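If it is no trouble, can you show me the amino acids of a protein and the tokens describing how it folds?
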Amino acid sequence: MADQTEIPISELRRSQPRFNGLDSGHRACLGCGEALAARLVTEAAGPDVMLANATGCLEVFTSAWPETAWRVPWMHSLFENAAAIAAGMESAMKAQGKSTKVIALGGDGGTFDIGFQALSGMLERGHNVLYVCFDNEAYMNTGIQRSSSTPHAAMTTTSPPGQERMGKRHLKKDIVSIVAAHHIPYAATASVAYPSDIRKKVRRAMAINGPSFLHIHSPCPLGWGHDGALSIEVARLAVQCGLFPVIELERGGVAGVMPIRNPKPVRDYLRMQARFRHLFADKAKAREELEHLQAIANHNIDIYGLRGGEPDALDSEGADTVNRGGVRWA
């Protein structure tokens, strides 16, 4: 008689080969959050996809001629038009009666700033495209210049701290709220610290017929000034202190959040990064900016209801998911 012993689900998952849309051998820095995020996205998306990739770190370190790390059809677009290229690819697939999903990839520079017009147009026209923004909070590929995604008070080569101001003066652009204002079916934020959450959200977006948007917080050891081995810890602290809320939105309304059981002080997150080291000088301005950043985190926790309450479920990375409006996405 055949052995009827049950194999644990965890063992079955380990024994099943994963599809790698982004292969090893690329030239990313050690501890690159963007490389990890891109691999997680392509694993969850599967092989029947086409990618449009804006100029940036991801494009550069994966496609040094004559080699490529991509195992799916991939097109390099300009900084400003990844969403427009993806819209054209999607229209071509539709005209041929094919169901291949199109994914646009961009950093914060190509999404928040240079490519925002094309992104807005793609969303407004309702193209069946998943747009993924890998947010490392500056123009890392060209010398660590500030972008509209750079956090308030962060040091970059174009927002140095000095006598007049303590790093970047302006607040980080709330891109997911702007995107959600287009009334698209699905928009979400995620962090490389929670891989299963990324996979779930990619699968959810892939199942949607229409535009969707995924904003992934992706630490950059070079630009943020931390050891590459600490990328996941840094990313997790960004979520746990409230500076990067992990949420899901449907048609502009909040549909789900990742609550924070015990919020960490913002200074725990900032202290690990050289780009915020000026905030720990014994100066009144530095203390004022620390208080400002803590207030921003507190506001995020309050406005999205991240604090308190009993979670509905616990995922494999220990991340809670709570329903909003009776809808569950995770």
Summary: The first helix runs from residue 9 to 15. The radius of gyration is 20 Å. Residues 24-323 form a domain with the Rossmann fold fold (CATH 3.40.50.970).
